[in-house]
Amino acid sequence: MNPCPGIVTVPVKVRFLSETCPPEKFNYATAGSAGIDLRACTAEEEVVIPPGGRHRFPTGIAVECTMPGVAGFVYSRSGLGTKDGLVVSQGVGVIDPDYRGEILVSLLNTSDQPRTVTRGQRIAQLVFQPVVRATIVPQDALSDTARGAGGFGHTGAI
């Protein structure tokens, strides 16, 4: 039974790879959470990330989404990013539907202070979303619009 009406569920097979992060630690924090908590399943008790530095963390899991057209996306945890400046280094990580290896999360320290991540700490969230692939149609020209090729502040909107 879905604990939060309106939320679609997707069957996902999970392979647990680390005793550091047992299955009961892989969950949604609340009934309405969109993302599953991913944890730092490191051999080290703690890892210090210097200002501007990056570190790649194993999560102790591999996944297989069984619904065609759905992939996993790794997002920063809002509290970790806002309070500590630790964000997913590439913006959003994509777990392709055919990937079967361990999910790794690279964190970037955007703060001006060293930040410590402890073993088992929640570091990111995994969200399953539909994927739409483009069919590439080569063209010599594209249709005209009022905006045209203007970008990066072209509209003047703040």
Question: What's the alpha carbon Rg, rounded to whole Å?
Answer: 19 Å
CATH superfamily: Deoxyuridine triphosphatase (dUTPase)
Q: How many domain regions?
A: 1
Q: Would you tell me the overall average pLDDT? A: 92
Strand order of the largest sheet: 2-11-6-8
Which structural class do you get from the secondary structure elements? mainly beta
What does this structure look like?
The protein has a single domain, classed as Deoxyuridine triphosphatase (dUTPase) (Deoxyuridine 5'-Triphosphate Nucleotidohydrolase, Chain A, Distorted Sandwich), CATH 2.70.40.10. The chain is built from 1 helix and 11 strands. With 158 residues, the protein is mostly beta strands. It has one helix spanning 78-84; strands at 12-16, 36-39, 46-49, 54-58, 61-65, 70-76, 86-88, 93-95, 104-109, 115-118, 122-130. A 4-stranded antiparallel sheet has the order 2-11-6-8. It has a 3-stranded antiparallel sheet with strand order 4-9-7. Strands 1-5 form a two-stranded antiparallel ribbon. The protein is 4% helix and 35% strand. The model has no long low-confidence stretch (mean pLDDT 92). The termini are far apart.
Summarize the helices and strands and which ones pair or pack.
Layout: E1 12-16, E2 36-39, E3 46-49, E4 54-58, E5 61-65, E6 70-76, H1 78-84, E7 86-88, E8 93-95, E9 104-109, E10 115-118, E11 122-130
Antiparallel strand pairs: 1-5, 2-11, 3-10, 4-9, 6-8, 6-11, 7-9
